Amino acid sequence: MEYDFPNKFQVIVVGTGMVESIVAAACSRIRLEVFHLDYSDHYGGLWASYNFEGLQKFIKEVKTNPSMKNVVYNLQEKWYINEDSSEEESKQDSEDHKTDDGKAEGTKKIWRRADFASEYRKFNIDTTPKLLFSRGLLVELLISSDIARYTEFRCVTRVLTWLNDKLAPVPCSRADVFATEAVSIVEKRMLMKMLTSIVGYNEEEMNNEFKDWNDKTFKEYLTHKGLTPNLIHYVLFAIAGGTNSMLCLEGVRECKKFLMSLGRYGNTPFLWPMYGSGDLPQCFCRLSAVFGALYCLNQPIDSIQTKTEEDGKTVVELKCKAKTLTCDHLVMDINECPKELLSPEPEEESSDISRAIFITNETIMPSEKEPLTLLRFPPLEEGGNAVTVLEVGPATGSCPKGLFLVYFFTPKVKDAESDLKPYAEKILNLSDGDQTETSDKPKCLWSLYYNVKDTNGSVRSGIDNVHVCRGPDAALDFDRAVEQAKEIFEKICPGKEFLPRSYRYNELVFEDVTPGPEFQREDEDADGDKQ
Amino acid sequence: MHGRLKVRTSEEEKARKEKERQEKLKHFKYAMQKIFTKRKNGDQDKEQLDLTEKVLSSNPDIYTLWNIRREVLIYIRKNIDSEENISKLYDSELNLTEYCLKINPKSYCSWLQREWVLTTRTDPDWKKELELCNIYLKLDERNFHTWDYRRFVVSQCKPPLQEEFEFTTEKLYDNFSNYSAWHYRSKMLLELYPDLEGGRPIQDNHHKHELKMVQSAAFTDPDDTSAWFYQRWLLGAVKETIRVVTFTVTPQKTIVAWNKFVSADYISSQLKVYFNDVITEGKWISCNEHEYDNLWIFNHNEEIVENINVKIEHKTLDNENEIITCEKYEPFVFIGKNKICFQNQYSESVMKELNEQLDSCRQLLALEPDSKWTLLTTTFFLHCINASLYHKEVVENLQTLKKVDSLRAGYYNDLISKWNIEQQLPCDYENNSLHYKNGFKEKLTSLPHLQYYSFCKTVDLSNQDLTSCILPFLKKLQICEVLDLSGNKLTTLKRFPNLNLEVLNLQNNHELNLEEIELFKEKHKSIKVIF
């Protein structure tokens, strides 16, 4: 270690993923001495967002670093644009200048690989794209802790589903139901009645209403309530995000979560973080640093072991390069944690995640303003998994103007490409053809398939004072990460408040500072005292 | 140590706030005193503007200060020669109101001040005002102050009404719980799309479209009353012609009853009375001495002889000539009756739409038989489509509504009374009887349309549920000699009108006070009161 800093900490956090970052912030917020490090040169770990060049580095890293092999695998990168010939490049370069200035709108830009390279900084591509429910755990935490001041969001503008072999908007809010022409008047009433009754149930009423439905599916319940097939589709697949086999109570809870988040910020229940999901861990790190945590990137760990000190206290000892660091508590990603520091349960078959990223030249469904879309695909085959699709555009700071990023994810069955390609083909043009060819689907320019290990099902935990964070899960939101961070924090400092609101500058008083001369207004001076 | 941070406790914060408040109060009191002193001294100067501005900036609702400002502005303006400087003066006043409206967007006096400035200055920028309305309605689409101000601006700058109409559409699609938007829409609908050919208030296709739109809103959220109000308005938007309903001539009195309230001017210009084919001049007096009334007394000098021939000629506003000839009912009693009809007349296509909507309502009713709004709307559809055909069902529905919505039982009872009378009237008009009695088993609670029975000599209102509230309406019984009010719920006779009765039966009105009856007898010596 080249810099001189303390070698004893109360908490050391290894890795800057979502869970780790929240724990670090919570610990330093209550003034524990925190050292937060990451072996890589950027924040976020598996939760990171990359620009286009950074993503190439990530792909290379995954392919070459053996320790990554079990975590990210089946990586398939593909270009749908031919390799740029050098003369074409120079020719188009000069043309490009013209396009920027004066080409009439409406003519689509022809993208070359070189454009991706030259505009690489305009990309913020997420490896773990997720949405926030407007009243979900993370939003409430960002508000209560006031970390929201470091963040910026955009509202998801629409929720789509795949119905009768085409994309269809889902009427989910009161305004949507009013405006839609896709359902009849009577269906509107039925839908609203179902949604309002679900929102109205408290936990007790829920148990009461659904006591006979414990082992039945949500679909059976909706059918029993007399909903038409269209409405069942909306509620089951789009609002609850379920499948035919989703259990009744789970469906009701998912619906309630969705509906409770409506009407807070926009017309849908969701927020998307500007510049990608990968921006969020950094916000927690920022607060952590403000409260005195020490940060160090590019810091690989050579070894970790627990040690009992003379006074009987167990500490964790880390060796990085020449330096030895000790701490009372170590927080780290389960994937990086040495086996001997984990509880002895065997590693179980993990149910992993299949993910895909597509870069396209237009949105999957045109709309007046730039859309930000959540699309929930029902399983295309009976018994299959539902697929979640997020489409984000330039307004979110995720890609250059003229492009869209489309993320797909689903629990893994075979491998990412086999799991997701059939779905992607429904809404994207995945041909190698020319960008000028007419197609009713947006042309895909580049894609990446990969599988990610999902350790959230693991029952193994760290031993002694080692706390392990499970990586990204397949859920749509960040709730699991927040819950985990809370659990870990509770173990480190039981009974302490989790991320109380941090104060702002104007709430501070600077002791020992002699105040300057008091400001007085002229008119006060003149007449104020006469009264 | 310098610059040590300390967070204020809530106690400290409270004390600081209190101190701030006291300080503000001191400034406020001082400024107000100064303003009033200056006003007393007639100091209408820039300083007065500055002082009032300062106070208004934090308390925009002190209307006195706005008044003072207007005085000062009018005074100052007189002494400014340059147009440019006058503009500046008014501009700064507009800026102040805009600032104040930011503090309180529902400040009556700030909006009013703005209106005053714009109507006072010679160079108002209405376009800017309309944009201001857009901004404020984006912030709060239901702020009726802004809607009101918008109507004022529109009345001045007259933008294309079509755009205004579309603006309401847009706002309603954001949130249809908006009385202001629906109301504004109704006004423009009549302006934009009157059915000139058919003489109906709204063109067919637009009438249909609005009915569809509002039903969609009503079914999306039946608990929102704004949609129901608009729907009721739409159902009532039918062609209404002023007509004479009956005409009675006796030696004592000549009276004409109308279906609508009309003025003496209207009668003088549209109605001619012929005695033995000679136009007779005379004076029209409202039976209640109102400007508008539906029963008018004709004072003339003709002598009513045994075989006189009386007819009236009414020229409707559609230039249609109605001629009604009186028949002799009894010696010296001549009565003319028109054809009467209470059925709303819709165009064929609107009727088709109403029938479709009735179908949807019935489907819904099968699902939720006790839903108040569905039942009430179904009932209104039935009544509007064919009141006599569906009469039995309508009354049954209203009886159910009395139970479901007991808080409004009185309203439903009144509706039953009204619609029963409307059913009975056409039959009574076929007969030559001079007697009226409620032919339905449901007891009357109100007496609408009583002018239709103005020719009756005997009126039997016994054993109904009438209260003393109905007494003023009895004024319509101008010819009545025998009135039976026994078995009702009268409590007082205070508002009993002057009538030329011979017999009045007040038996079995248990709440009626004996003393009051004695007083009444004293006052109306010619009436034989049975009690």
TrEMBL record, chain A:
Chief place where the protein resides: cytoplasm
Pfam family for this entry, one: GDI
Protein name as catalogued: Rab proteins geranylgeranyltransferase component A
Compartments reported by the entry: Cytoplasm
Annotated spans, Disordered: 84-105
Taxonomic lineage of the native organism: Eukaryota, Metazoa, Ecdysozoa, Arthropoda, Hexapoda
Keywords, sorted A to Z: Cytoplasm, GTPase activation
Bias kind Basic and acidic residues: ranges: 88-105
Top-level taxon: Eukaryota
The species this protein was found in: Euphydryas editha (Edith's checkerspot)
GO cellular component: a single term: cytosol
Keyword Metal-binding attributed: no
Record SUPFAM superfamilies: FAD-linked reductases, C-terminal domain, FAD/NAD(P)-binding domain
InterPro entries per record: FAD/NAD-bd_sf, GDP_dissociation_inhibitor, Rab_escort
Biological process per Gene Ontology, one example term: small GTPase-mediated signal transduction
Coiled coil: none
Keyword Cytoplasm among UniProt keywords: yes
Known role: Substrate-binding subunit (component A) of the Rab geranylgeranyltransferase (GGTase) complex. Binds unprenylated Rab proteins and presents the substrate peptide to the catalytic component B. The component A is thought to be regenerated by transferring its prenylated Rab back to the donor membrane.
Listed GO MF terms: GDP-dissociation inhibitor activity; GTPase activator activity
Family of the protein in this entry: Belongs to the Rab GDI family.
UniProtKB/TrEMBL annotation, chain B:
Keywords per UniProt: Prenyltransferase, Repeat, Transferase
InterPro entries recorded: Leu-rich_rpt, LRR_dom_sf, Prenyl_trans_a
GO biological process, one term: prenylation
Keyword presence, Repeat: yes
Stretches the record annotates as Disordered: 1-22
EC number(s) stated in the UniProt entry for this protein: 2.5.1.60
Domain of life: Eukaryota
Repeat listed as a keyword: yes
GO CC annotation terms, alphabetical: Rab-protein geranylgeranyltransferase complex
Known function: Catalyzes the transfer of a geranyl-geranyl moiety from geranyl-geranyl pyrophosphate to cysteines occuring in specific C-terminal amino acid sequences.
Stated family: Belongs to the protein prenyltransferase subunit alpha family.
Protein's name in the database: Geranylgeranyl transferase type-2 subunit alpha
UniProt organism field: Euphydryas editha (Edith's checkerspot)
Phylogenetic classification of the source organism: Eukaryota, Metazoa, Ecdysozoa, Arthropoda, Hexapoda
